[in-house]
Specification:
heterotrimer, A: alpha/beta, Rossmann fold, 2 domains
């Protein structure tokens, strides 16, 4: 599909298959990751081509306001799902019992988990925009563990430039210059990453997963 | 989404319908409903005289009925009212109106009057003509709902008389009281003709047209005495701010009409009451300055003139032609009504140098012993 | 306090506050006089009762409007007059005077004051919304600009008119608000507006929360946030214009009632605050109106009383917010 925003083409001739499990969309800033996500969510409509989605879509935004309301209120906001469902997913992400807490008083990681629970409750296909950004390694690990666990039940599309997510991905889509390349995670190596990001990136194996080391020039 | 549109449509239709209803009403046509206790109209009488002689003569005399009421009148705000019967219980909301009622011999019908009217009657020593159950209606001329509707309702008046100048903003809400309200020109008067029109309007309402004409005639006679033009330019100042700007009678105010009727020229060339810059006074250079004392005494009022920068260059000041008004003298000037003829007299005396520098109540009553013609 | 308890408590406080409102005024009516009938019944049923009903309805409408605005615009310092309705109404009223002064019948001043005030309050809102188009920042700034423009026009017009017609009545009513003389017809209209607005707001509260949390999420759920905000602010502006044209500007209630609700419920979600505000607004304005009429023997503007109420509330709210930000 092709998506233009304000007359400027952002995604040109992008097409890929959404596989079960976790689909990771990687690409430098401005490559159109968020645009892609929003198009799949139905916020934007492609100028050419179409998006085929079966069933409801859940969305976890990268930015959200610091709302002074309870976690339950955040979950129930505009969702239209029964409260029990939201509570079940809240427990599934590890925040069971937090529904009466005030959202703005939670830590960033906890807030992210709340919004993740909301997205999980609201769709079979769950879109996540930068779910691990600005989190310390421990919090990041929590999110990654949750995603790893739940990808059997849901289909995720994650837009991120956190390369560590490759380790839990079932498919990787690389965006650059508005074009997409779909790979299996095993095929993601230093060469293709360096080309995507325009920076030398080395891939190192350690303890069963891949580590991605950008070569900074200083 | 559909339910939202529907709800919005209901609200819009309701508002439009309400406004349509608003316009389909004529401006309040009200009826005075209370029956009078006495009437001055002739009634029908039939009398039969029987003379006992061989011939029986039957004489019947019938007098023709001329019913004066009901009448329809239009007030100073162009509102139409129907007066069904002669009003017996009247509320007056302005001293200028009270003066006219007293002059028309209607003082005994005033069941309610504002505190300024009462103050005026006290100064004139006329309070005895009021009925025993008369009450003072405390009004607040600054407040849009300051007409004290509760007190008015409890007095159960047949008619409320109000001033279409400072009390016009009450018209909207007074109509909701359920009593007839008639607005006189009052403080909106720009000339003596407007005052005379008010007197005649009251004459019409109370079926006292002849009496009203007599009052008007009296006013004209008094005014004729002072019509000789002089060259004096007069500025009537009512308030001076600390920075020297001041409030004074502009050329379209009633006070200016009084000055002109007295044969003078109003010094302030602009309209309204101000605030005016000091330079306006200096440029106008009036030959006479009259200051209202606004509750202070004469001497203090004259002293406040010094707040105006360069006032010493004004000829009135340098020639010592400054006068202060207080008490009844101030009322006569400020209230467009019957006593305004004395305002004309006073301005004339001021302009021809025949007045003291302080014109207070005592001086006023000496000059004009029976201010309101009650004859 | 739970939401339900707050609503119940507010509703329960209505009857005694109604009685208080009916008692107060230039003439204080003790209970024996209130229910006795006779000469006082005109005052009680003809004048004070419709005013009391208006106060309750207006309080609800303004409070709920404030709650909705503060949620949708993510700004706790907004009130329903933000689109310039207050200044627009004052200008409309002045125009009615101007028409009377310029030589058309003085009756115009009486007849056309209310409709012209409504018209220009709405016109000001339209100008603001056209400038803002639903976007948060633009609407707020646009509203400020429109307010200033109409205020300036009113002030200049007033100065000009008072030089032409020295006895021009002051515009106090439009600037400060008096709930003293309201017709039953106006009450009926207010009731329709209140019912519609409150029902819609309560129903939409959860979706409003979503818009508050994230515009993106709102999009995903099929809400267009800008258009949604525009719809609500239009509905609110229209209701506010109606209120201003009837009773003048009643300030601070739309600002303060949602804060009161937030503090009592310890929850700022629209789902909690919208119904609570609607419930709180009525008794607060009833009480303020009763005080405004009864304190001094003549009516002081209602806004003066609501502002006295608001001061401690706003201070408390700011302290709360400050603590939250600092922690």
């Amino acid at each position: 599909m092709t998506v233009s925003l304000g007359g400027v083409p952002v995604l040109v001739d992008v097409s890929f298959d959404i596989v079960d499990g976790l689909n990771l969309v990687l690409g430098p800033n401005g490559s159109g990751k968020t645009t892609l996500l929003r198009t799949i969510a139905g916020i934007y409509r492609p100028q050419r081509g179409s998006v085929e989605v079966d069933g409801d879509v859940g969305y976890m935004p990268a930015e959200f306001s610091d709302a002074y309301m309870t976690v339950m209120d955040v979950l129930l906001a505009g969702g239209g799902r029964p409260p029990s469902r939201y509570l079940a997913w809240l427990a599934a992400v590890g925040l069971g019992g937090y529904e009466r807490r005030i959202f703005s008083e939670l830590s960033t990681g906890q807030k992210r988990l709340v919004l993740l629970a909301k997205a999980l409750a609201e769709g079979r296909l769950v879109l996540l925009d930068e779910p691990t950004a600005n989190l310390d390694p421990a919090r990041k690990a929590v999110i990654m563990r949750v995603l790893q666990r739940l990808k059997k039940l849901k289909t995720f599309i994650v837009a991120s430039h956190d390369l560590d997510l490759v380790n839990i991905a079932d498919s990787v889509v690389l965006l650059r210059g508005g074009r997409a390349v779909q790979l299996r995670p095993e095929e993601v190596d230093g060469e293709v990453l360096s080309e995507t990001y325009g920076l030398p990136i080395e891939v190192v194996r350690s303890g069963g997963h891949k580590l991605f080391l950008p070569r900074y020039d200083f | 989404m559909a339910s939202k549109v529907w709800m919005a449509a209901v609200v819009v239709v309701a508002i439009v319908a309400w406004f349509a209803g608003y316009y389909s009403r004529a401006p309040a046509a009200q009826t005075a409903t209370v029956v009078t206790t006495y009437s001055e109209t002739a009634t029908t009488t039939y009398s039969t005289t029987v003379t006992t002689t061989y011939l029986t003569t039957v004489t019947t005399t019938a007098t023709v009925v001329v019913r004066y009421y009901p009448i329809t009148v239009v007030d100073a705000l162009n509102r139409t009212l129907q007066i069904a019967a002669e009003p017996a219980r009247v509320v007056s909301l302005a001293p200028s109106i009270t003066q006219m009622l007293v002059a028309l011999g209607l003082c005994s019908r005033i069941v309610g009057l504002d505190q300024f009217s009462y103050q005026l009657l006290k100064e004139l020593n006329y309070t005895s003509c009021l009925p025993a159950d008369a009450e003072v209606v405390e009004i607040n001329a600054m407040s849009p709902t300051g007409f004290n509707g509760d007190a008015i309702i409890l007095l159960k008046p047949d008619l409320v008389l109000a001033d279409s100048g400072i009390e016009a903003m009450w018209a909207k809400d007074m109509q909701k009281l359920g009593v007839p309200v008639y607005f006189l020109y009052g403080t909106r008067a720009a000339s003596f003709a407007d005052i005379e029109r008010d007197v005649e309007a009251l004459g019409k309402i109370f079926d006292r047209a002849r009496r009203a004409a007599a009052v008007v005639g009296w006013m004209e006679a008094e005014l004729a005495k002072y019509r000789t033009p002089t060259n004096a330019t007069v500025a009537q100042i009512v308030w001076i701010n600390p920075d020297g700007s001041f409030y004074a009678a502009g050329n379209n105010t009633f006070v200016a009409a009084e000055i002109r009727a007295a044969g003078g020229i109003n010094a302030i060339g602009q309209g309204g009451w101000g605030p005016f810059e000091p330079s306006l006074l200096i440029a106008a250079n009036p030959s006479v300055i009259v200051v209202g004392s606004m509750g202070f005494n004469c001497t203090y009022a004259l002293q406040t003139l010094r707040n105006i920068p360069h006032v010493s260059s004004v000829s009135a000041y340098s020639n010592g032609r400054m006068y202060a008004l207080s008490g009844l003298a101030e009322d006569a000037v400020d209230q467009p009504s019957l006593m305004s003829v004395y305002a004309v007299a006073m301005f004339n005396m001021v302009m021809t140098g025949r007045a003291p520098h302080c014109l207070d109540t005592r001086w006023f009553l000496q000059q004009f012993p029976s201010p309101i013609p009650t004859g | 306090m739970s939401g339900r308890n707050l609503v119940l408590f507010s509703l329960a406080s209505l009857p005694p506050l109604f009685v208080l409102f009916l008692s107060t005024g230039a003439v204080f009516l003790t209970p024996d006089k209130l229910f006795a009938g006779g000469p006082y019944s005109v005052i009680v049923y003809g004048i004070r009762l419709p005013a009391a009903i208006a106060a309750a309805l207006i309080g609800s409408i303004l409070a709920v409007s404030g709650a909705v605005m503060q949620t949708l615009y993510r700004n706790p310092l907004l009130d329903p007059y933000i689109t310039g309705t207050a200044s627009g109404a004052a200008f409309g009223a002045l125009l009615a005077y101007a028409l009377a002064v310029v030589g058309l019948s003085p009756a115009y001043m009486l007849l056309y004051q209310v409709p012209l005030a409504f018209l220009f309050a709405t016109a000001a809102s339209i100008a603001t919304l056209a400038a803002g188009r639903g976007r948060v920042y633009a609407t707020v700034i646009g509203g400020v600009a429109v307010s200033y423009i109409f205020s300036a026009a009113t002030t200049i017009g007033l100065s000009y008119l008072s030089s032409r017609e020295p006895q021009i009545p002051p515009l106090a009513f439009w600037l400060f608000g008096y709930i003293d003389y309201v017709s039953y017809r106006a009450d009926a209209l207010l009731a329709v507006v209140a019912a519609g607005l409150i029902a819609a707001a309560v129903k939409e509260a959860r979706r409003m929360d979503l818009v508050a949390i994230s515009d993106e999420l709102a999009h995903v759920r099929g809400i267009k946030p800008d258009r949604y905000r525009l719809f609500w602010i239009s509905a609110i502006s229209l209701s506010t214009a109606l209120i201003v044209s009837q009773v003048g500007v009643v300030g601070f209630l739309g600002l303060m009632a949602p804060h009161m609700a937030r503090m009592a419920l310890k929850n700022g979600s629209a789902a909690a605050v919208v119904p609570a505000s609607a419930a709180l607004g009525a008794p607060v304005l009833l009480a303020s109106g009763a005080l405004a009429r009864g304190l001094l023997g003549f009516s002081v503007p209602v806004t003066a009383i609501t502002s006295i109420f608001s001061a401690p509330i706003i201070i408390l709210a700011l302290v709360h917010a400050g603590k939250r930000i600092d922690s």
